[in-house]
Each structure stands twice: as C-alpha cells, then as structure tokens.
Amino acid sequence: MDVFANLGLGFATVWKIVWWAPGFLQGAFAIPLPMNILLCFVGCLVGTLIGVLPGVGPIATIAMLLPITFGLDPVGALIMLAGIYYGAQYGGSTTAILVNIPGEATSVVTTLDGHQMAKQGRAGVALGTAALGSFFAGCVATVVIAALGAPLTKLALLFGPAEYFSLMVMGLCFAVVLARGSILKAFCMIMLGLLLSTVGTDLETGQERMTFGFAPLADGIDFAVLAMGVFGFAEVLRNLENPEARDVVRTKIGRLLPDWSDIKQSINPVLRGTTIGAILGILPGNGAVLGPFASYTVEKKIAKDPSRFGKGAIEGVAGPESANNAGAQTAFIPLLTLGIPPNAVMALMVGAMTIHGIIPGPQVMTKNPDLFWGLIVSMWIGNLMLLVINLPLIGLWVKLLQVPYRLMFPAILIFCCIGIYSVNNQPVDVAFTAMFGLFGYILIKLGFEPAPMLLGFVLGKLMEEKLRQALIISRGSFWTFVERPISAGLLLVAVAVLAIALLPSINKKRDEVFTE
Amino acid sequence: MSLNQIERAQGLRIRSSQDMAAGLFMILLAGLALVLSSDLPLGTLRQIGPGMLPKSFAVICAALGLMLCLASLRFNGEKLAGWSWRGVIFVLGGAILFGLTIRGFDLGPIKVPQLGLVVSGPLVVLVAGCAAEDVKWKELIIFAVVMTTFCALLFKYALSLPIPLAPWLLGI
User: Fold this and answer.
1) Contact residues, chain B, for A429 at CB < 8 Å
2) Minimum distance, in Å, between the CA of residue A417 and any CA atom of chain B
3) Does the residue A49 lie in any domain?
4) Is residue A382 part of a domain?
5) What are the DSSP calls for B83-146, one per residue?
6) Residue A266 falls within a domain, yes or no?
C-alpha cells in the first residue's frame, strides 16, 4: 500500500532525531532531540496561548507567530506552523466556550451550547468533549488527506493554465457566497484583493505598476504586511472601540473527561460532524466555514428533543467542533495538491511557505516528499498534542482570559512590530503595516469583512500568470476557457453557485444561517 | 431590508450611509488605481500588457462601488458609525515610532540614531497603551519593561533573529 509507505516516510520525518549541541557547552557533548516533535509541541502550545486571547482569531495568531518560525528549516517551520494553526483553532473554541466570544466564524456555533454548558458548571466536559471530538476528527481527516493527496496531485498535473484559472475563479465565487455579510461587499473585497495584488513589478515586462515610484513597493505589497495590518492592527482598533463585555465563566470548570453517558450522547454527532466537516473542507473557497453550521443544523434536526439546543446540549458542542477540526484540516488538500488556498488562513500558509522558499502545488509532493508527508503526519501528532496540552492546562487558559485588554493589546502590538520588522529586516515595513492597519479599520467601519480580500490578494498573482499563459496558448481567444471540458465545468459550477446565492429565497436562508 | 410602501413614497434618499460611503470608497480606490495605471500599456488579448489586469480590476471595483451606492438608496441598512481617533493615533502612532527608532532614520533635518529594541520596545508599549481608556501608568511601565525583556530574550537569543538591541549602549 502506497499510503502506508508514505505515512511511514512522514513518521520518519517527524521523529527525526537531531543532535543538538548547545553553544554554551562548547561542543562537549550533544543531546539527541526529536526536533520536529518538539517544534510541533511548541507550535501547539503558543498557538493555543495566543488563540485563547479573546478577539484574536486564527488569522491574527498565525500572522503574529510567523516570525518565530523564520530561523528554522522549511520542514520544521511548516510543522510548527501547522501546530500553531491547530492551537489557534482550539484556542478559539476554548474562548467560545469559556467567554462566549467566538474567535472567528467557525466557532460561532460552539458559543451557542458550549457557553451554556459552561454556565451550568460543565465547562470541563464541554472542553473535554470538544478536544476529544476534534482529536477523532483530526485522525480521520489525516487519513483522508493521505488517501486523497496522491490521486489529486496526479489530477493537478492534467490541469493546464486555463483549468487553473477557472478553478481559481470558482474558488473566489465560493468565497463570495460563503462570506459573512452582504454578497456585494464580499465581492468588493475579492476584487480589491485582486487589485492590490497587481501592485509592484509586472513579471513579464518588468514595468512597475502603481508603485508611486516608491522603491519598497517595487516587489509588490508584502503579504505579511497586509495580513498583519488588516488582521493585527485593525482588529486591535476594532476591539478597543467596543469595550468588551467579557463574560468569563465564574463557575467551576468541573471534571474534564466526559462520563459514559456523555460519550454515548456525543459519539454519533462526532461521527456525523467529522464526515460533514471533512467533505465541506475540501471545497475551494472556504467550504470549511460551513461545516460547524451544517453539523449543528443536522444535529438539531434529528434530535429527539430539539428544544434542548441552545441550552447546553452536548451534541451541539461535539458535532460542530468535530466538523470544525475536520474541515480545518481537509482545507489543506486544495492547498497541498493544487496550490490553491481555499480560505484566508490557508492564504496565510501560502505566504508562510513562500517565505520559506516552498511554492505550494502538486510539485511539493514529488520534489519534497518528506515535507509533504511530514506535514501530514504532524497534523495527526498536532491533534494528539492538543489533547495532551489542553486538558491539563485549562486552568492556565482561564487565568489568561482574565488579563485585561489594556495590557493585552500593547503586547500584541510589540509582537506584530518585531514580527514585521523581522520578515525583511526593513523598518519601513512597520510603517506600511500601520498604513494597512488604518486601511483595514476603514474597511471595518464601512462594513466590509476583510478575510476575502486576503484570499483575492494571494490568488491574484497566480491568476494573472495563468490567464496570460492560457491566452498565449489559445492565441488570444477567451473561448479556451469554455472549450476545454474541465475548465468549462469549473466555470459552470462557479456561475451556478453565484446564481443560486443570488436567488431571493436562498438568500434569505443564507442570512438565517449566518445570523443564527 | 427592502422598503415598505410609506418609505417607498419618500423617494430617493440615502437609506444606508454605511453602504453609500463604502461604495464611494470603492470608486475612489478604483479611480486612484486607474490614474496610477494610466500610462501602462493594455496590450492585446494575445499578449496581455502590464496595464490590462490592473485597469480591468479597477473598472470592476468601480462598478461594484456604483452598485453599492445605488443599493444604499434602495435598501435600508446600517448607518456610518463614529470613528475613534484615539485608537488610530496611539496604536498606529506607536507602531510607526517603532519603525522609526528600531534602526534609526535620516529625513533631511531630523536625524534619529539607531536606538534598537531597548528603546523602541517600551516606546511602542507605552504609546499604544495610551489608547486604552483605563490606562494605568505604573502598571503599563512595568509591563513595558517586562515585555521588552521577554521579546529581547525570545527573538534575539532563543530565535536568533537579527534585531538590534541597543547599538548605542551595548554595541549589539
């Protein structure tokens, strides 16, 4: 079986022992360390640490912690980043349950029943169920990625520029439809992201575009600068404005491990949630965000007594949390096999990979098999770590939740500043980031949701390149996108999705889903 | 939300100042992009020039902005909310001060030497800290020192990133 051989390679990479000779011992002796495991552990730990902070979502967490991976080799850095990602996800759920503040869209559902459970003194069980459900979902999703990785990579090699272009168009259409708030505004954000991506030197002609003749802009807008400005600084400004009503649970956390009756109640929701989340996560354009909503709706529909939901039903935590984690993980599939990030968090991963000199896409699997499979296995290890870290450390997270915001945001700022400075060792980047912070704040004030912009920004360069190639091959005929069957099919799906979303009846339903 | 009959009778007026402003903002950005990319050649479909995509994206942005403006006349929506200068000035100002002092700068008559993290770190924490309404100075000063020490240890020593600490004092 290929899959097992590949996973074996992954485990070998993750377990690789590095002889660490500390400088202060002057090479007297070296200590054998399973470096990658340690990195995964540290990643999960700091990811949770930052992700737990209310008002700091996974995007801001990853953007903020990016610089701590700079000194590492690419494999180690990616493993650590994956750890940070899961940690941030799980930290978000912890905040949702304990404080009733969702870090991002996907943990909104968890606040409904999770926080109610916490108020009833069952916070521990809610957290434990979330952790165990997520762990199970993570295991399944890892196998799904391992199984689908190779065939999808082969499929990707059949894709020409026209197909890639159409695929990205489809992804962006999905992102528009699945974004929170008005469709028109989400569309604006995608286009603005695409427009921003054209700033800088044109790859083919070498002409500078929209740079104001300003040298630091010649390489284009730095991804880290945009992300940290819009998600780090602007978020701080947004949070400062709304004096938070932090509703930290005062009751006891209670026991962590769910008892037998809890397990019996939550096992089926976990199974269903995992399936739903894993399938939706593969969709391009942020399908993962639908997972928890879909799972919650399903559980409520098939429950014998739907009125329990919203009042602390354990199924309402187990299902959505599993769906959330499964989706968070299968979202790596389009990124690793096709090189196309499905959502803003994955767009950030693309940025991180590029900083480490890896261009995500089908070639990663063939050129750096140790990186690809190491990353997949580390996902599983990361989930295990989360279980190990979170259950004993919940007390610490609760303490952390009580840190007042007036101390939290200066700490976030100094981290962001050092982080941005370290990307290129350019002080001017920090000033740029402050500018984008202002830009992001304006967008928030105007009711725009900036996440789709980040996706558009990352896909923009690739789209332009593929569009140019496709049109050169077709000698300037746009029909190439319709004549090629795969490309036509993808575009058809894109049009269908947009059309369905614009139908008034569905539009109403969509509003309900996002306001619930 | 769409309108009821009475509201419809009131004729055209701005029913969502937020959407109206958002639309105008999009049009403004698109206009800026069009001006900046005006001298870039469009090229042909067979050989797309550097100006093709920026210009097309800008036109689409402007069209979307126009749609937002029109929608703000037709549908009720949110009002433009107030704007907090305090946060903008102190938070973003703190960050800019960090950028200016970490390696020093030289802008004509104003010269700042390379001050390093030992100065920039507390500076950003203290200035940004003013943005909070419940600022407590003693607490903030202690916190600034602790955070700077922590960041210096973490980034300079544990992660060995090349950040100047205090070249004027310690030579590193």
Assistant:
1) 99
2) 6
3) no
4) yes
5) --HHHIIIIIHHHHHHHHHHS-EEETTEEE----HHHHHHHHHHHHHTTSTT--HHHHHHHHHH
6) yes
For A145, the token pair is 């990625």
Hey, is A31 helix, strand or coil? Answer: strand
Given pLDDT bands bounded at 50, 70 and 90, which one contains residue A63? confident
Tokens of B119: 């100065």
Pairing of strands B110-112, A18-20: unpaired
Q: Closest chain A residue to B25 measured between Cα atoms?
A: A446
Find the mean pLDDT for residues A55-59.
Answer: 76
Domains of chain B, residue spans: 5-74, 85-158
* Element housing A209 (H / E): strand A208-209
Please compute the mean of the pLDDT values over residues A327-339 and round it to a whole number. 84
Burial zone of B16 (CB within 10 Å; 0-12 exposed, 13-18 middle, 19+ buried): buried
Q: What value of ipTM does the predicted structure carry?
A: 0.90
If pLDDT is split at 50, 70 and 90, which confidence band does B111 have?
confident
Give the residue carrying structure tokens 């979902």. Answer: A137
Query: Hey, CA dihedral for A333, A337, A343, A345, is it positive or negative?
Result: positive
If you average pLDDT over every residue of chain B, what do you get? 83
Residues A325/A275, Cβ–Cβ less than 8 Å? no
| Residue bearing tokens 């140019």 | A468
Instruction: Tell me the HSE value of A88 on the side-chain side, using a 13 A CA sphere.
Output: 26
Mark yes or no for CB contact A447/B19 under 8 Å: yes
DSSP H or E stretch at residue A32: strand A31-33
Half-sphere exposure (CA, 13 Å, Cβ side) for A232?
A: 34
Percent of chain A with pLDDT over 90: 4
B163 contacts on A by Cβ (under 8 Å)? 418, 421-422
The residue among A278 and B78 whose pLDDT is bigger is: A278
In a domain, A366, yes or no: yes
Chain A: give the shortest CA distance to residue B66, in Å.
11
d(CA A51, CA A79): 17
Cα dihedral value A313, A318, A324, A327, nearest 10: -140
The boundaries of the domain holding residue A85 are 2-7+58-515
Mean pLDDT of A308-333: 85
List pLDDT tens digits, range A182-208: 888 888 999 999 999 988 888 777 788
Q: What is the token pair recorded at A206?
A: 């070498």
Is the model's pLDDT at A12 over the cut of 80?
no
Q: Could you read off the pLDDT of B24-45 as tens digits, one per residue?
A: 999 999 999 999 888 888 877 7
- Whether A68 sits inside 8 A of B159 (CB atoms) is yes
CA dihedral A307, A312, A314, A318 (to 10 degrees): 100
Query: How many domains are contained in chain A?
Result: 1
Query: Nearest to residue B166, comparing CAs of B150, B148, B154?
Result: B148
Instruction: Name the β-bridge partners of B43.
Output: B48
> At B156, which amino acid appears?
K
The string of pLDDT tens digits covering residues A136-155 is: 998 898 888 888 877 887 87
A3 versus B126: the higher-pLDDT residue is B126
Structure tokens at A342: 């499905």
Residue B107 to chain A, least CA–CA distance (Å): 13
Angstrom distance (rounded) from CA A389 to CA A403: 20
